[in-house]
Design brief:
CATH class of the largest domain: Alpha Beta
CATH topology of the largest domain: Rossmann fold
Low-confidence stretches: 65-70, 144-167, 298-304, 485-489, 690-714
Strand content: 5-15%
Number of strands: 22
Strand order of the largest sheet: 3-5-6-7-4-8
Number of domains: 5
CATH superfamily of the largest domain: P-loop containing nucleotide triphosphate hydrolases
Structural class: alpha/beta
Mean pLDDT: 79
Largest sheet: 6 strands, mixed
């Protein structure tokens, strides 16, 4: 049955197929496609509507009240539907009609005896129309046209059998959007700052031949906005006489493709659109967004490529069209087809600069305010442009700035009608504590002693409930009070304006750069950077100062131009803090965005595919590379290559390209911008390779100013490409002194204690001299701080865990004291007792549990 139905549908004309589509939509409600649904679909056609009206019947009698229900099931055709349709198609075939229209299909349904019997049994009123009358009425309708009425503007069939032509404006209204009409209704945004491109559009459109411009530019630069700006000028009459009164239609390719399941159906619809534009002459200009998608569309067996349907009309000049596409797609689909490229005139659309983007965004502020019902401050516009340029390098202005501002306004508008985020956050924390208290309370019946933990949870719960009460009181007050005149007061739960901080919060969520880094003044951030680095990198004062200068320049937006924000080469012995410095710089400058690669993992030439993606034809093609995709997703990152001198020369050449140009193409040819990234290469240099002292000083410091002779004494560093060394800044790390090792040991001990406190609520009190003992007793002559970190992880943490497991219940505190050749871990009843032990010393007769940790 399905094969027979497909054969029947293939013999129908365009208007008949449209009627069947409408019938299928009506059938979604009942799940069956019957004669009633077929008639309801046919009545929507103007010819059928007119035939029924002239026959004395009310077409509204055949309307169906039920509408599509959204069901995704396919309606099942009834036997009566199949029989009536088959008889009608056979009848038109005997009359020599190749592709019957909707009107001809109705006439056949009423003139053929078999079909008439099925139709009239379902809808008896159709039996009032004598045989042959519908055909005669149809002929009269086609000869004089339909009488004025509600259906006069609906598409109608052409008089010639087998050829379906419809009213041009009706076809365009079905498959396109009238931009000029929208401009008259002031539904379009003004194209501020694109006057030059609009003038170029007009110049090409008024040419006699090859008057088809195509706007070519990156996604988001405003190609569609330029066309809308042209529609606004046409609506205002600010165009040459040749374009005065022109209707600009935007073709909706989705509507053209929707439901075009039969071979040649899509091409037929496109052909109807082209015929409609040609029939209207110079009064219609067609805009085809993403015009490259037409190349190759259709093109199935027995059909034509959609682009080939456009070429003749474009060449004759009877079809004026405006296209829009990106440079990549233009070169791939249009420029490669010489015949199609000749028919278009490319107009480049470049990304506007920050100043022009600000003007464009400001022009949209009134519409955004009207849409969201909030006020937008000019500082929000400034922040949207500044932060989008700095942190959203892969997107283009003005789209990325407008998107930020739109999202910020939406957030404020939503916040006015929902519970503020701080209150929701406090409520979530209260719920978490309630659940934990409930769980621990139920475990008391099993003999578990959680009384101390429960008491601490109740104390935290009281604090949160107080905070929640204050927030709710503030929220209630703000809901009934006007917005403050100034923004210098405490942060509001219901902000009624979009300011720079709201925009910065959106960028922070998108890029994961801390909000404080986006909102604090650059001068303050740069001033605080050395102190912040010094708390993470110990014993490398000169390297820290140098990194602080580089970080300050990047924070102030004054990083190097033409390449990455900075290119650094860390040199020094193993274990002196090179990787730690990179991590600290990532945390303080890029919000923790760090991509780490080990040079030894890229010692083969083919390993470059791991960084930029597999080449065409290889497994993994299209999946992207670890480096290119990582930077594309987080442009403001630090890219660290550890032991870079161990990498293959092919990989080093790739790194050189990034350092010199600030860009890298992935395996698919798509460029990745590294201008906001910081490139760091660490190279392990033995003490004999350079004149490195314990203060971190070397004979070479800073930029090399194009002279790489100073690098030759650095051993492995000399394996790096010369151009890379010329653009890089050398940061030297010296051997660690005893005070530095002591500071590292102290930081490690505190880190273990903090972990124990956060997880088990056990306080670790460390004696004053413990860190110094650890630093002196562990041999760090060759490996720097690595032996200390290994001892903390493998020995100290293990002994601490063993001591806790020996206890029947978790202790309140543990004291860590120096005992000469070892370190003692002493279980204490309270934090005060642990502090007394660390201050006064441990007395073995106290009876406390003790664990001796040796080196």
């Amino acid at each position: 049955m399905t094969r027979d139905l497909t054969r029947l549908v293939g013999r129908l004309g365009l208007s008949s197929r449209d009627a069947l589509e409408r019938a299928s939509e009506f059938a979604l409600a009942s799940g069956t496609l019957g004669v009633a649904e077929l008639l309801a679909g046919l009545v929507a056609d103007p010819e059928v509507h007119e035939v029924l009206r002239r026959a004395g019947l009310d077409p509204r009698e055949f309307y169906l009240d039920r509408r599509p229900s959204g069901s995704t099931t396919v309606p099942v055709p009834t036997l009566g539907f199949i029989q009536s349709l088959e008889a009608a198609v056979g009848h038109t075939g005997m009359l020599g009609i190749v592709s019957p229209s909707a009107g001809e299909l109705l006439a056949s349904l009423l003139d053929d005896s078999a079909a008439r019997a099925v139709v009239t049994s379902t809808l008896p009123s159709l039996g009032l129309i004598p045989k042959g009358m519908s055909s005669r009425i149809l002929d009269r309708v086609r000869s004089v046209g339909p009488t004025p009425g509600p259906s006069a503007d609906v598409p109608r069939a052409d008089a010639s059998p087998g050829r379906v032509a419809t009213s041009g404006i009706a076809v365009l209204n079905r498959y396109a959007v009238n931009l000029t009409a929208q401009a008259r209704e002031r539904a379009l945004d003004a194209a501020v700052g694109r006057e030059g491109e609009i003038r170029q559009l007009i110049d090409v459109l008024v040419r006699r031949r090859q008057n088809n411009p195509v706007l070519v530019g990156d996604a988001g630069v405003g190609k569609t906005a330029i066309v809308e700006g042209l529609a606004l000028r046409i609506a205002l009459g600010a165009v040459p006489p040749m374009l005065s009164g022109v209707e600009l239609y935007s073709l909706d390719l989705g509507l053209l493709r929707a439901g075009a399941s039969m071979a040649g159906e899509f091409e037929g619809r496109l052909r109807a659109v082209v015929d409609a534009v040609e029939a209207e002459g110079s009064r219609v200009v067609l805009f085809i967004d993403e015009v490259h998608t037409l190349v190759g569309a259709g093109g199935r067996a027995g059909t034509q490529d959609a682009a080939n349907l456009l070429k003749p009309a474009l060449a004759r000049g009877t079809l004026r069209a405006i296209g829009a596409t990106t440079w990549v797609e233009y070169k791939r689909h249009i420029e490669s087809d010489a015949a199609l490229a000749r028919r278009f005139h490319a107009i480049p659309v470049n990304e506007p600069g920050p100043e022009a983007a600000r003007m464009m965004v400001r022009s949209l502020v009134p519409r955004l305010e009207a849409h969201h019902g909030v006020r937008i401050l000019d500082e929000a516009v400034e922040q949207a442009v500044r932060l989008s340029v700095r942190y959203l390098a892969e997107r283009r202005l003005p789209d990325k700035a407008v998107g930020l501002l739109d999202t910020a306004a939406a957030r404020i508008a939503v916040g006015l009608t929902t519970i503020p985020e701080p209150i929701e956050s406090v409520r979530a924390r209260i719920l978490a504590i309630d659940l934990e208290i409930d769980q621990l309370t139920r475990e008391l019946g099993l003999g578990r002693d959680h009384s101390k933990r429960i008491s601490a949870l109740y104390a935290a719960l009281d604090r949160l409930e107080g905070e929640h009460a204050e927030l709710c009181e503030q929220w209630e007050a703000e809901r009934h009070s006007p917005a403050p005149s100034g923004e210098a007061e405490r942060p509001r739960l219901l902000p009624r304006v979009v300011d720079g901080r709201v925009v910065a919060s959106i960028v922070s969520e998108m890029t994961r750069v801390p909000l404080e880094r986006l909102t604090e003044a650059d001068a303050r951030a740069a001033h605080a950077l050395p102190a912040r680095l010094a708390t993470r990198v110990f014993g490398q004062e000169r390297a820290v100062a140098q990194l602080a200068r580089v970080g300050a320049a990047i924070t102030a937006g004054l990083g190097s131009t033409g390449g990455p924000a900075a290119c650094l080469v860390f040199t020094g012995p193993h274990g002196v803090g090179k990787t730690t410095a990179a991590r600290a710089l990532a945390e303080l400058v890029t919000g923790g965005a760090l991509l780490t690669f080990a040079g030894s993992d890229f010692s083969e030439a083919h390993s470059v595919a791991t960084l930029r993606g597999a080449p065409p034809g290889y497994v993994g093609y299209g999946g992207g590379g670890l480096l290119t995709e990582g930077v594309r997703r987080r442009p403001h990152s630090i890219v660290l290559f550890e032991d870079a001198s161990d990498a293959h020369p092919t990989v080093l050449a790739l790194i050189r390209t990034i350092a010199v140009t600030g860009r890298l193409d992935d395996a698919e040819g798509l460029g990745v911008d590294f201008s906001n990234a910081i490139l760091v290469l660490s190279v392990a240099v033995d003490e004999t390779d350079g004149n490195t002292d314990t203060d971190g000083d070397t004979d070479t410091d800073g930029d090399l100013d194009g002279d790489t002779d100073g690098w030759t004494h650095l051993g492995p560093t000399a394996r790096l490409p010369r151009e890379l060394l010329q653009t890089a800044t050398l940061v030297s790390f010296g051997e660690l002194s005893m005070p530095a090792l002591t500071a590292i040991a102290s930081a490690g001990l505190l880190q273990v204690g903090d972990a124990l406190k956060s997880r088990y609520d056990v306080t670790v009190v460390i004696g004053e001299g413990v860190a110094g003992v650890v630093a002196r007793r562990i041999d760090s002559a060759q490996q720097g701080a690595r032996p200390i970190n290994a001892w903390l992880k493998d020995v100290f943490s293990t002994e601490l865990a063993s001591l806790l497991l020996e206890q029947e219940s978790l202790p309140a505190a543990i004291a860590v004291v120096d005992d000469g050749p070892a370190i003692l871990l002493v279980i204490s009843a309270s934090e005060q007792d642990a502090e007394s032990i660390t201050e006064d010393g441990f007395v073995s007769s106290s009876g406390a549990s003790v664990r001796r940790v040796r080196f």
